[in-house]
Amino acid sequence: MRIGLVVNPIAGMGGRVGLKGTDGKVTEARRRGAEPRAPDRARRALSELADRDDVDLLTWGGEMGGDVAREAGFDPQVLGAPEGDDTTAADTERAVRAFVDAGVDLVLFVGGDGTAADVAEALEGTETPMLGVPAGVKVYSSVFAVSPEDAAHVVRTFERTERREVMDIDEDDYREGAVHPELRAVPLVPVAEELQSSKQLGGGNVEALAEGVADDIRASDKTFVLGPGSTVGAIKDALGFDGSPLGVDVWRGGEVLALDATESEILDALGEENVIVVSPIGGQGFVFGRGNPQLSPAVIRRCDLEIVASRSKLDTVGELRVDTDDPDLDAELRGWTKVRVGRVERRMMRIA
């Protein structure tokens, strides 16, 4: 199989530092100390393929694929390189068109929804399928594997393709708390169970759930890390403060300690006993790894976990998922867990 690999090296950098994306914010993300996420995600996927002698890897130079491919054990065919010091969407599109001209069987890209849209645009009018290794902050589109390792499994095993949605949102609106997904393309993607679904908005009536959780929080002296989304947003409303709808807020003893917090701000605000309150993404089931990178492995390991969701949301997801950037932590989190669905009611769900 001939695979064309392209990496967006800045994808996801803005997440842990509270920028909710990197579009137009690379300089600010670096100023805040953001570290690249995509190279390690690419390396994890490629390491699962490096022992296959039936894989012919074509890529783009430097940090857009060549460097990480060699680190993973490949001797790739490099078809070109980015034109400037900072990579752009045009570099991605140029790489993908070169892959098509070289007759690849699949374009494997590492990035987020914006990268997916760039790849899909370059593939328009062709029959070449694409597959994403998730490395962005939001990852709304259904062209991504669940994890880097799942992407490698799909590459090894898929036999047919189907058309799936590439969705993207305006990141400036997203930073202000508004989510308006836009359908950007419907490209060919491998058919596989390891692909995520498109994100669904909304999650049913959560009023009783929110009031019950808020009552428990008020009665506790623990520190509560309240994740993004409408379900946890209802809990913030019930606590009586105007929380950040798409950010992470920290609460203890009737006081908001951090609003729309970065990873470092969350860590600074934690106490002796801490609880993360988070709701899975509707349609995808992700508890960690989509839309909340501020909840990093360092944060998660210092907290207990409270998952909350409406019954209707759980009915749509089937099972829960995690993708924390730490495979060992992912393994620790997997298994059966209780999800709070009402004022006191809970439902057992499996984290896959």
Question: Could you give the topology of this structure?
Answer:
Elements: E1 2-7, H1 26-31, H2 38-47, E2 56-59, H3 66-71, E3 77-78, H4 89-101, E4 106-111, H5 113-123, E5 130-134, H6 148-157, E6 161-163, E7 166-168, H7 171-175, E8 182-185, E9 188-190, H8 207-218, E10 223-226, H9 230-239, E11 249-252, E12 255-258, H10 263-269, E13 274-278, E14 286-288, H11 297-300, E15 304-308, H12 311-317, E16 321-322, H13 327-333, E17 335-340, E18 346-351
Helix pairs in contact: 2-6, 4-5, 8-9
The main pleated sheet reads as: 7 strands, mixed
What is the C-alpha radius of gyration, as a whole number of Å? 20 Å
* pLDDT averaged over residues: 89
Structural class by secondary-structure content? alpha/beta
The oligomeric state is: single chain
List how many beta strands DSSP finds. 18
Distance from N terminus to C terminus (CA atoms, Å) equals: 29 Å
* Shape summary: elongated
Low-confidence stretches: none
Strand proportion = 15-25%
Helical segment count: 13
Helix content: 25-40%
How are the strands of the biggest sheet laid out side by side?
A: 12-11-10-13-15-17-18
Structural overview:
Helix 2 (about 40-45) packs parallel to helix 6 and helix 4 packs across helix 5. The strands form five sheets. The protein has a seven-stranded mixed beta sheet with strand order 12-11-10-13-15-17-18, with helices on both faces. Strands 3-2-1-4-5 form a five-stranded parallel beta sheet, with helices on both faces. A two-stranded antiparallel ribbon has the order 6-9. The protein is built from 13 helices and 18 strands. Strand 4, helix 5 and strand 5 (about 130-135) form a beta-alpha-beta unit. The model has no long low-confidence stretch (mean pLDDT about 90). With about 350 residues, it is an alpha/beta fold.
